[in-house]
Fold this sequence. Notes:
Blueprint: H1 3-12, H2 19-44, H3 50-58, H4 68-74, H5 97-104, H6 131-136, H7 159-172, H8 185-188, E1 218-220, E2 223-236, E3 248-261, E4 267-282, E5 286-301, E6 304-316, E7 328-330, E8 333-347, E9 350-363, E10 366-368, E11 373-374, E12 381-392, E13 398-411, E14 424-436, E15 441-454, E16 462-476, E17 479-490, E18 500-514, E19 517-530, E20 536-549, E21 554-567, E22 574-586
Antiparallel strand pairs: 1-2, 2-3, 2-22, 3-4, 4-5, 5-6, 6-8, 7-10, 8-9, 9-12, 10-11, 12-13, 13-14, 14-15, 15-16, 16-17, 17-18, 18-19, 19-20, 20-21, 21-22
Amino acid sequence: MSRTPKTMREKSGVLRADGSARVIAMALVFAVSAGLATAQEIELRGNVSEDEITATLLSRDGVRPGQEAEVRQDVAPEPYIPVSEGALPETESGTDPARAGAAEDDPAPADDPFASDGLFTRSEPAGRVSVRERRRQPENEPRRASSRTGGELDGATEPEGEAEDEDVVEATASVRQPTIDSLDEEANSGVEAENPRTDAIEGRDFELEEEPYAPLGLRLGTFDVNATLEQGLRWTTNVDSSPTGEEALLSETQLRLQGSSDWSRHAARFSAYGTFLKSVSGADYEDPEGGFDAALDFDLGGGYSASAGLNYSLRPESASSPVIIVGTASQPLRHIVGGNLGFAKNVGKLRLAATGTVEREIFSDAELSGGGTLSQEERNSTLATIALRTGYEVSPALIPFAEVELGRRFYDLELDSSGYARSADRLALRGGVAFDFGEKLTGEISAGWLRETFDDTRLEAVSGPSVAAELSWSPERGTVVTLTGSTLVEGTTTAGESGSVLYSGLLGLSREVRANVLLEASLGADYRDYVGSADNETTLRAQAGATWWLNRHVGITGNVRHETFESTLPDRDWQATSVFLGLRLQR
């Protein structure tokens, strides 16, 4: 027992004192010994070592150093709750005042001699946040909630922690599984009626067609073909459009075919027509007329494209032709056969194209009034040209261009009946604009200068302005305006004369006033300029017509036409007026 005070004084750091200090120490020892003896009888039931006595003296509230975490985890201290409400003031944070006071007492006092000793520093149990840490946390940072297995929460319970715990409970709770029958969709679905009731025809909503009277067309291979047949009667005041023409009633039959391909890459189209006029009463007259036109467009890839075309036309030569044949019973038939082949290349916005054209003109023999025929072989010729065009794409819808055309006209006979060599070299320069605004406006228009120089120097060269146009304009739905124009060099067999230049233009208008009513009108003009002479001729024509469709396949059509021909040459003027009424069939 004599070692105990000495050991206690060494471990507690108490300095040796005088005799009074000894007396105090001895009293303390006797008090501790009495407490240990009592503890031995109640709990320990054995000898008590010196170390256990020291630990007991240095502990607080009966808890030894190093065991605070275990005790706090097993048993949570119960906060003081007064019986009377309002005995203790509420804190601003809303926590229990008793609990808040206990939290403030957790730190060791500043005069605690053992507070700085690392061996006896209190450690917070796992899962709890100390008061110091809570004070250092920002106000907007949520506090961590203690585990529910530890009993009470440390401080105020946070709603977020409760939500997380509730999620865990819901996720881990038992979920009722659906029955096997409920998973069988086929068994649970209702049986559809095999014979549903059909709605009344009067109650159905029918979709209106945009063009209910448009032709259905025929399918021939990969082509969609439309056919139109017109049959009617035409009354005219001048049956052959000549200065001596007579009145007559004619039967007029016309057949037209149009087709286009539905190929994915290339395109093809064609059109053909045939017209036959035969006198029913009045002057004897018979006039066959017809022709066809076909075109192919090829997409070669890499900015290259190609095109090819073929055309043919047959009609009697007009009585107003510049070549006057005396003593004929009827005008000779005129055949025109032509073909073209072109290549184009796009280089950025630059458009380059080259087109070669061959046109063959053939005249049949003329029938004489006194019998026999007159050969027109000296008038037969072939024109071969090549046109080089350069354009620039200002926009996809607007391409201005410049074009030069080189060619030669070959006559079948090197010398005509008068001894003139009429073969000639051809040169033309043009400038124009091509349009492509979709359905609104398409086509091109150009103007320039044309010249043909004959091999025979005695003949004056044919030269003059050159104009060309092919436009289609739709200002509004159901209305189409077309404009065509051309310049043609006409030869002659008259001795010492070079020929003439013919300018032609036609303006057309079509309007659908109703789905089954179509109105049409046109104005045309021709001007012929004789080379080396002041003579000229003018032709004016106007026409108006209408078509009333009874159904998609049958319609009634009619038109009125008037023509006037004036010439500076003697005995060449004439006028003609005609009226047509007939039936139009289409498919």
